[in-house]
Amino acid sequence: MEPKSFPEYLEAVAQSGGQVVPMSKDVRAVIWLDYSNPKGLADLLDQNPQIEWVQLPFAGVDAFSEIIKRPIRFTSAKGAYREPVAEHALALTLALMRIIPERVRTQTWGRQFADSLYDCSVLIFGGGGISEEMLKLLAPFRARVTVIRKNPAPVLGAFQTLGFEQLEAELPKQDLVILAAALTDETYQLFDASKFALMKPTAYLVNIARGPMVNTVDLVEALNGQVIAGAAVDVTDPEPLPDGHPLWTAKNIIITPHSADTRKQVVRLFSERIKQNVRAYGSGTGWVGQVDPILGY
């Protein structure tokens, strides 16, 4: 980590009883901040087989899918950014259902239209911290929420919790589908034309998970063909989304630039995760966000 760029992280380590030192054969724990450089981490681990623990920077660890199979402890930031990401998902949802994209661009009185989140059926795909936070935010709206997750253990606040195999049966019943799962081989391009065809033509899609979970070409066609009513995405495939890409001009789309959690928010929240896990490394207990190499998150 670069001390000049992240003094907050240095402080978090120090406050937890740790010390940041230059890389050497005596170093056994690493806080890795560069999500875009998995090869750099792989090389570091190859050169330093004594390393016992690596803290990764984000909730998703798909960029490190091969590295996390190594027999050392990996922790991620899963759950750390749950509040701002869930808040962003709610903001996108309300904007879609009140056709805010249309209203902010128009210069005429136009049509009156609004869908209400109150008493609607919602499917959250994924059962981690963001989903748990979304359930809290949706509770005042009396939404009937179905959570679909890899492990169908009940999630507090959900009407029902089901396994991945129930996704297709549930999609036709939902007014809103929120993607909040990890990107794995199983979820890659999962939401494609076949899934959109199962959704109501009045239903909305919100993606605050990972862009490649959605087939972008199929999403554009589903929006323009009014197969679904609208979509809001904070993540895209490709990302960044190039200027002139057809998704920018698709019908009833909101695109935000992977900004559900901003740098300011990330630094504050990841600092807390560093404190928790540096203490856990010192004591041997209390780990948060441990990565399961089999599940891939």
Automatic annotation (TrEMBL):
InterPro entries xref list: D-isomer_DH_NAD-bd (IPR006140), NAD(P)-bd_dom_sf (IPR036291)
Single Gene Ontology MF annotation: oxidoreductase activity
CDD domains linked: 2-Hacid_dh_2
Domain annotation D-isomer specific 2-hydroxyacid dehydrogenase NAD-binding: ranges: 92-260
Annotated keywords: NAD, Oxidoreductase
Gene3D superfamilies: NAD(P)-binding Rossmann-like Domain (3.40.50.720)
Name assigned to this protein: Phosphoglycerate dehydrogenase-related dehydrogenase
Source organism of the structure: Rhodoluna lacicola
